[in-house]
């Protein structure tokens, strides 16, 4: 989560940072280094090189980087980059790089980056997670690594009550529910769980449908091989869904083995170690600076009844 916040903040004020700096990557250069793929004049000659573009793209997240494998997309990126540079120069000429509100935001952002970088050096890079720590954590949190009971159904879900009644009669008369579910799926009339898989829901946790009380209760009431004795009516966002299903299999609840969840356990141990290391580090900083708090000097806000003004009292 912290990483996502950092990325979002960077995107939000990247342009602010550029405004507050005098230098820019397209500064005058009579001998540009690399293959020039764009140039313009604004208080001098500016160039953009292929190498510059390639470097920027290589530093993007993979999901964005892949987009620029195509030549036309890289051309689009180049066009956008030039436009951003022109906007920057216009803002700089307008004196916005000296605007106090902007420079204040840049300073705040710089402080945050410095703190995060220092925390990375002092905390993140020093955290080690041993196999014994992970196993100890796993043993103490086994209940968090339990795979719940799961069921598999052959399910028919329709939104036309009359059609559902007709289908239910066919099944009661002996037609196999699996064949009927497949037929309805192919006709795109089977619109609920397993509808896109010929009615086969695959294994799932019934508790994941706790919001669908009628459906969840009907699952619980059935034994393996049994078909719902009546059509189950389940409301979904105000729309009644008419369900008929057979419980095919049950997978019992089971304890996940350490090796299955080792990666998740490592993440949790790392979080705990980071929190502990962070507290120790901050305590050390406080000790170095003779840090003191004077909370008693913070005034207590007046209660609502004490906020009445003389004018308000007269109005009464």
List the helices and strands and how they pair.
Elements: H1 2-19, E1 36-41, E2 45-49, H2 50-58, H3 62-65, H4 71-93, H5 100-122, H6 131-140, E3 146-147, E4 150-158, H7 161-172, H8 177-186, H9 213-221, E5 232-236, E6 239-251, E7 254-255, H10 258-288, H11 310-315
Antiparallel strand pairs: 1-2, 3-7, 4-6, 5-6
Helix pairs in contact: 1-5, 6-10
Describe, in short, the structure shown.
With about 325 residues, the chain is of the alpha+beta class.
Number of strands: 7
Mean pLDDT: 88
β-sheet strand percentage: 5-15%
Structural class: alpha+beta
CA-based gyration radius:
32 Å
Which strands sit side by side, in order, in the main sheet? 4-6-5
CATH class of the largest domain: Alpha Beta
Helix content: 40-55%
Which tags fit this structure?
alpha+beta, 13% strand, 7 strands, three-stranded antiparallel β-sheet, 316 residues, disordered N terminus, Chitinase A, domain 3, 11 helices, two-stranded antiparallel sheet
Commentary on this structure:
The structure is a single chain. The strands form 3 sheets. The chain has a 3-stranded antiparallel beta sheet, sandwiched between helices. The protein has 3 domains: 2-102, no CATH class; 123-144 and 260-316, no CATH class; 146-254, Chitinase A, domain 3 (Roll). The radius of gyration is 32 Å and the shape is extended. The two termini are 52 Å apart. With 316 residues, the protein is of the alpha+beta class. It has helices at 2-19, 50-58, 62-65, 71-93, 100-122, 131-140, 161-172, 177-186, 213-221, 258-288, 310-315, and strands spanning 36-41, 45-49, 146-147, 150-158, 232-236, 239-251, 254-255. The protein contains 11 helices and 7 strands. The model is unreliable at 1-25 (pLDDT under 50).
